[in-house]
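Action item from last week, closing it out:
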Amino acid sequence: MNIQPLDNVSIIVAIAKNNAIGLNNQLLYRLPNDLKRFKQLTTGHTIIMGRKTFESLPKGALPNRRNIVLSRQEGLHYENAECYRSIEEALMQCDYTEDVYIIGGGELYRQTIGLAKRIHLTVVDDIPTEADAFFPELKAEEWREVLREEHPADEKHAQAYTFIDLMRR
């Protein structure tokens, strides 16, 4: 597949210092400010996720967003979500004026890293002892940093973390 970045596609992800993103289909970290940022960025827009990511959501489809789930399984149906078999099929259902956020998991990030124009990272100042899902390595020459906000650990956040927004060069 010849991938060209799309102006309306962003990736949003929280990663550990070793690019770990999950274990047993669960997020590694509970960072209230990261969840607030996620909600602020994605509300009113389209989110695309893999089936396992969707099934890990505690209440199903996220409210006030167009939820798209990708799975190779035929006939899959989830309440308040659209299901497609490929990222290409899903993107064909999106208008070019829609902001589209890829929200995981690891396999979908690998498939779509070449499509994204922006990446909204939360980098957690930690290396977990266990992880089974990882974000792909970023090539520094392909991205430029446009925002950085560092936050120390506090009573609600066990680890320090940094919000970093990247734009494709």
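Closing note: The chain has one domain: 9-168.
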